[in-house]
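Hey, can you fold this?
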Amino acid sequence: MANIKSQIKRNRQNEKRRLRNRVFRGEARTAIKKARVAIQTGDPEASKAAVLLAIRKLDRAAQHGVLHRNNVARRKSRLMKALASMEVKEVAAPAAEVQPEAAEAPKAKRAAASKPKAKEEAVEEPKAKKPASAEKKTAAKKTSAKES
């Protein structure tokens, strides 16, 4: 137990913050678990709704400083990646049954990608104009130089 007044107060503040932060962290953790379960079940609509809810909860936790923004970005990225891979598997499965020629298309793409490409001509972009205030200053300098 602390003897110094300021440390006693600091302990009280830390305890309040810990209890407040638990709410945001717990909601985010629960939403992530539900999103992962929804993705594993394979229902695209429920999965998307669960992932969006999890992202909302993660953003809220980052906004309050409970989780670091990079940590939140990493978790959101992983959720979106899992959701996208689930959607790709669902789309690929029916397409493979309908079109057996579609399986040969990636080989052609790989073969084309392995060939060296011709050098593309460099396209020069026009230079950005100076802001109006800079042009006025330059014009003022020129006129004052001519006068003297």
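Oh, and this one too while you're at it.
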Amino acid sequence: MNDVFYLIASNPHTPARVLEKLASSPAALIRRQVAANPHTPEGALEALAADKCPEVRFHVALNPVAKYDTLERLAEDEDVTVRLVVAENPEIPEEILKKMKDDENPYVACQATDTLTVQRFKNRMMPAPQAGACPCGWNNQHCDRG
């Protein structure tokens, strides 16, 4: 039966109400898949961010729809692996990464610094689109979307 629940929890088309129920599964493997599912409601992700299993929290940190408060909590997680995943995520807000630069674990602190550097470089490489510019942000005729 867990195989079926695993597949349901993994499916991006699973309804939010079903994912909310599966988030309280006794099986960590099922909760992990719910934590990774991009359609899991924020309330369920918040609860999973406090899960006793670090692997579940790890997947919440990777979920692209996790909110700022949830990520901020995970940035201070007791498990170094969870904090490292937060620091590696290029979509983590800059404010959280700045705090993580002072993490007690040197690997987490270094990764937060590296991710900040990548974010800043990326922001310099992609200028803000200008009026009349191609939708991809460039002002030349390099593509057919302009």
